[in-house]
Amino acid sequence: MALPNSKPSGSPRGKLILVVDDEPHLVRMVRMNLEVEGFRVIEARNGLQALEQIRTKLPDLVLLDVMMPELDGFATLKMLREFSSLPVIMLTAKGDENDRVRGLELGADDYLPKPFGPRELSARIRAVLRRAESTSVAPEDTVLTIDDYLQVDFNTRSVIVGGERKKLRPLEFRLLYHLIENAGWTVTYEQILANVWGYEYREETHYVRLYVNYLRKSIEPDPSNPRYILTERGVGYRFMDFRRSGGSRSQ
Q: Which residue segment(s) compose the domain that 64 sits in?
């Protein structure tokens, strides 16, 4: 069982990036650097303008500042997620962990603390676009039964937990898929980051902990005493070996 992966095209030409920030000098700097990289760029100065641009221009990715007048980044992201799964990278104040966690919880795909360099910005955008492309590929039409409590529907990228269907965020699903693919084996933080987020994120081990926590809340009968996603302290995580306990999949 293998998760389809889109190969990076090597060129971002044609990708449209919406930059949402009320600091003109930062927007100019970002536009200049992204256009050199081959991206097309449009701008918005607040959340209301951003939502209008998203509806009318259909960008491929949004760079969204947190602190803005009229409608801040969090409120904008919350409204955006009501109608779109468009990739979003939040721009946050350096070292403000609360902003970063809140953005991820609202559905951001990544965050970038200010100030940032052009190379890091480009690398993050490319990585998020690659993930968006790979998660848009329909996997095999299969439902995997872990046990009588948990099923994973690869066609709809959802889980059925105690008879109730739950939709997962794209990153949650990729993480779950990777853990299931290696069921019974310990997967290190570095392996998870490389396969789920991309090699650019190999130092971001807190991402893994945060999304494992999200997954446990979605699939575990008791997240504080997990049955499926087990912690290997200081190393990584291991998904229960359901194959030995009779797990199966059906078309």
A: 16-135
